[in-house]
Design goal:
Layout: H1 2-25, E1 35-38, E2 42-45, E3 49-53, E4 56-60, E5 80-86, H2 88-91, H3 102-114, E6 118-124, H4 130-140, E7 147-153, H5 178-194, H6 206-225, E8 229-235, H7 238-242, H8 247-258, E9 264-265, H9 267-276, H10 289-307
Parallel strand pairs: 5-6, 5-7, 7-8, 8-9
Antiparallel strand pairs: 1-2, 3-4
Helix pairs in contact: 3-10, 4-6, 6-8
């Protein structure tokens, strides 16, 4: 019995070891992008860190942007600086390589078209709403930007910060084992999605709506006050394209129009891609690499017109 027990224990160790290797090598787990809590911004990526995730490169600069490093202020007065701010749609997540981000593609396209130095900064994080973006720009400033592009989706009209403790979805330190990440982050997500265990979202409170729409107004005001051109683009979920835009889409558009801004609509090009292919979505809201290209293409002309 002792020998049998030792064989079972040894077999379990071997199995765990094989699973750990599989999780690290095949799934790319064990070295997740790290986050830090913040009393004003709520949370943001830990600065000056790079990762290799699911075969994709993910890099954050000294300002927690998913962008290349650059000085806070312009060195070359001919440089065009564009800040694109938003949530996971712009951040791209681990499923999108740094070179496939809309901001990277847009930077390259603008530089080639305008024949001048161009920086397009990616200031975004998963589940950021307008108050998070506003808090970030108040903290770090506008980096000598010429144009700020605010990219919002329908749920952003009520996506107010909660300042809850960061959980497994936003780890603050590297796990000892890749299996820890699989167990804490991905298995719960899988079971919630496939077994119908997701909690129903509670209706947004009037306070959350007011906080978020007020933040959109303030983003527009502070950007204009600094003498910077501000554009606002709206992204639609796949489900909205199949039915109709949610109320948040209309409320955000109304705030922009009150400020004299006609929102740039990403939805028509995403709808066209859904009809003609390839599919531009990873999931209901998140764009894949083709969707990132669509965002870059749609934003190109309005930005070029703004700086001409």
């Amino acid at each position: 019995m002792l020998v049998t027990g030792l064989i079972v224990v040894a077999s379990l160790f071997v199995l765990v070891g094989l699973l750990e290797v599989y999780a690290r090598v095949v799934l790319g787990l064990g070295n997740p992008p790290l986050w830090m809590a913040d009393p004003e911004i709520e949370y943001l990526p830990q600065p000056a860190k790079s990762y290799r995730r699911f075969g994709n490169r993910i890099s954050y600069n000294a300002y927690s942007m998913r962008s290349r490093d650059f000085p806070r202020n312009k060195v070359n007065p001919d440089e065009l600086r564009v800040l694109v701010v938003g949530d996971s749609v712009i951040n791209g997540g681990a499923q999108t390589d740094q070179q496939a981000l809309a901001t990277t593609l847009l930077e390259n396209k603008l530089a080639e078209s305008l024949d001048r130095p161009v920086l397009v900064a990616n200031i975004a994080a998963g589940s950021w709403g307008p108050p998070n973006i506003l808090a970030y720009l108040r903290r770090f400033g506008l980096f000598d930007a010429d144009v700020v592009v605010i990219v919002l989706n329908s749920p952003d009209y009520a996506d107010a910060p909660t300042f809850e403790p960061l959980g497994p979805k936003k780890p603050q330190r590297k796990p000892v084992l890749a299996l820890q990440e699989l167990h804490g982050k991905y298995l719960p997500r899988y079971f919630k999605k496939n077994l119908g265990l997701r909690r129903k979202r509670q209706p947004p409170t009037p306070e959350a709506i007011d906080t978020c729409l007020s933040a959109v107004r303030e983003l527009i005001r502070m950007t204009r006050q600094a003498g910077v051109t501000v554009l606002l683009a709206q992204h639609l979920k796949r489900s909205e394209l199949a039915t109709e835009p949610e109320i948040g889409h209309r409320m955000i558009a109304a705030v922009a129009q009150e400020a004299g801004i006609e929102p740039i609509q990403l939805g028509p090009e995403f709808a066209k891609a859904l009809r003609d292919g390839p599919d531009p979505y990873l999931a209901d809201i998140h764009p894949n690499e083709h969707g990132q290209r669509i965002i870059a293409d749609v934003l190109f002309d309005p930005i070029r017109a703004a700086v001409s």
